[in-house]
Amino acid sequence: MAMKIRLARGGSKKRPFYRIVAADSRMPRDGRFIEKLGTYNPLLPKDSEDRVKMDIDRVKHWLAQGAQTTDRVARMLEAAGVTPKTERNNPKKGEPGKKAKDRAEQKAAKDAAPAAEEAAAEE
């Protein structure tokens, strides 16, 4: 059975509240889980100690059993000092999208056209 330590969403519309759970990876996000390991309340300030609460011993137990963490939970565990920091690299994050690139090309072509006409008129 492939285990995941992940977030299960609760709370009402526009008021999110998450449980940190150990669940079978085949179960739905908010569906059946094996054990509740903690809570995460994103509405609290980042420096609040109640924002993320975890049972570290049980998290370590599940990690020892081979459970994989999702990216968000892995970041929380890194902040808590349970797992070592891993370096992430997303080289495409700062790159503009296809439409923005097309607009930039059109603007460059438009700017280049008057400059070429001026150069031809001077000669």
TrEMBL record:
Tagged with keyword Amino-acid biosynthesis: no
GO CC terms, sorted: ribosome
The record, for InterPro entries, names:
Ribosomal_bS16, Ribosomal_bS16_dom_sf
Keyword terms: Ribonucleoprotein, Ribosomal protein
- Stretch list, region Disordered: 79-123
One Pfam family here = Ribosomal_S16
**Bias kind Low complexity: ranges:** 111-123
Has the keyword Ribonucleoprotein been applied to this entry? yes
UniProt biased composition (Basic and acidic residues): 85-110
Which family is annotated?
Answer: Belongs to the bacterial ribosomal protein bS16 family.
Name the chain's protein: Small ribosomal subunit protein bS16
Query: Source species, please?
Result: Seohaeicola saemankumensis
